[in-house]
């Protein structure tokens, strides 16, 4: 570390050995530096502590080292502190993806619901990426997993059923309501606006009809008096669109006021109502919900969702913005583990 404004270097004679067995020149390891490092342990610990809290450019400027040195130090710290014990005692996990670069470049993130920590991060949104998690987990620890929260895509679901067949799969409620909002939105766009002579001046204008979409997508409890009157006017102007809004609110009620023990019957009745509504978008949605009904009900009964993962994704976005991008996926993964996997860096002044 610097002495105030004075830059300090450590000079030491390190032995080099020509190994005949591996045909490589090996360097003596010293207690005050990590293998392969060109900085002391104390210096690297300070870099890691700062990197958990600010961007690499600020760290490099403060400590007078290169940006690449900060990046390499972060990777070394993660390699040293991130051991296999983080995969022990996993019972309820969640898996989700997050984009890290344009062009559909994704990372697969696995987190522990009980601790809120990231336990696995891998490049790509693919079956192979999730398979690698179970390869590292091993059969014995995989058999202890009780529940897995995920979206309803076939990428993660098939791997989870095959590698942890005893685990209960839970579809994230956010994605279910997202499907419903998409169905409502598509049906709204397909509706022609009411002719001007049918618009009651007190409630409706042409501009109000165009803004109806936002009122329909908002939750019923968030509607003010003017928007509620706007939605209620649909009962006479376009009853099928009003019925679609009622179906959306009924599905939201599944997660707000329905007893978990009655969730399966409630969802079955909702699907029947959606099919009888003769609204094509909701008939398609009912078929999709029926396909994943067991996982949807399991999420309600266990009280699980991917909110942990969504919160983690928000923190990863902060890491990305704070670093103004990362050159490789491996660099970003190292920062994710450094900041979100529970790694504790002790400053030299605290020992």
| Widest β-sheet, arrangement of strands | 5-4-3-6-7
Helical element count? Answer: 16
Main β sheet profile: 5 strands, mixed
What helical percentage do the residues reach? 40-55%
- Write down the overall mean pLDDT: 88
Oligomer: single chain
Total domain units: 3
Radius of gyration, whole Å: 27 Å
Task: Please give the alpha-carbon distance between the first and last residues.
Answer: 16 Å
Q: Quick one: overall form?
A: elongated
Run of helices and strands: EEHHHEEEHEHEHHHHHHHHHHH
Strand content: 5-15%
In total, the number of strands is: 7
> Uncertain spans, ≥5 residues at pLDDT below 50?
none
Structural class: alpha/beta
Write up this protein:
This protein has a five-stranded mixed sheet with strand order 5-4-3-6-7, sandwiched between helices. 52% of the residues lie in helices and 11% in strands. The protein is elongated. The protein has three domains: 16-81, no CATH class; 84-172 and 305-340, Nucleotidyltransferase, domain 5, CATH 3.30.420.10; 173-301. The relative contact order is 0.13. It is built from 16 helices and seven strands. The chain is an alpha/beta fold and 351 residues long. Helix 6 (173-189) packs antiparallel against helix 11 (239-256), helix 11 packs antiparallel against helix 12 and helix 12 runs antiparallel to helix 13.
Produce a short descriptive summary.
With 351 residues, the chain is an alpha/beta fold. It is built from 16 helices and 7 strands. It folds into 3 domains: 66 residues, no CATH class; 125 residues, Ribonuclease H-like superfamily/Ribonuclease H (Nucleotidyltransferase, domain 5); 129 residues.
């Amino acid at each position: 570390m610097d002495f105030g404004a004075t830059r300090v270097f450590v000079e030491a004679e390190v032995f080099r050995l020509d190994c005949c067995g591996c045909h490589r020149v090996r360097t003596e390891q010293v207690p005050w530096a990590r293998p392969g490092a060109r900085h002391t342990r104390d210096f690297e610990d300070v870099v890691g502590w700062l990197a958990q809290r600010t961007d690499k450019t600020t760290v490099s400027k403060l400590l007078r080292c290169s940006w690449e040195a900060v990046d390499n130090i972060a990777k070394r710290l993660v390699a040293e502190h991130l051991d296999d014990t983080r995969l022990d005692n996993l019972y309820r996990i969640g898996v989700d993806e997050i984009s890290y670069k344009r062009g559909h470049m994704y990372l697969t993130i696995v987190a522990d619901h009980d601790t809120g920590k990231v336990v696995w991060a891998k490049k790509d949104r693919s079956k192979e990426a999730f398979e690698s998690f179970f390869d590292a987990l091993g059969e014995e620890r995989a058999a202890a997993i009780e529940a897995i929260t995920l979206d309803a895509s076939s990428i993660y679901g098939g791997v989870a059923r095959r590698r942890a067949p005893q685990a209960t799969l839970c579809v994230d409620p956010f994605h279910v309501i997202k499907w419903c909002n998409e169905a409502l939105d598509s049906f709204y766009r397909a509706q022609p606006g009411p002719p001007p002579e049918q618009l009651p001046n007190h409630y409706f204008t042409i501009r109000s009809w165009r803004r109806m979409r936002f009122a329909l997508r908002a939750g019923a409890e968030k509607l003010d008096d003017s928007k509620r009157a706007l939605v209620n006017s649909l009962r006479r102007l376009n009853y099928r669109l009003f019925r679609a809004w009622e179906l959306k609110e009924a599905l939201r009620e599944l997660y707000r006021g329905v007893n978990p023990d009655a969730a399966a019957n409630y969802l079955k009745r909702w699907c029947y109502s959606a099919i009888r509504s003769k609204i094509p978008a909701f008939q398609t949605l009912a078929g999709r919900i029926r396909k994943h009904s067991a996982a949807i009900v399991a999420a309600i009964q266990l009280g699980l969702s991917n909110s942990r993962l969504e919160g983690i994704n928000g923190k990863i976005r902060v890491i990305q913005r704070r670093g103004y991008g990362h050159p490789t996926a491996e660099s970003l993964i190292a920062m994710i583990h450094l900041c979100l996997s529970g790694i504790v860096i002790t400053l030299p002044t605290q020992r």
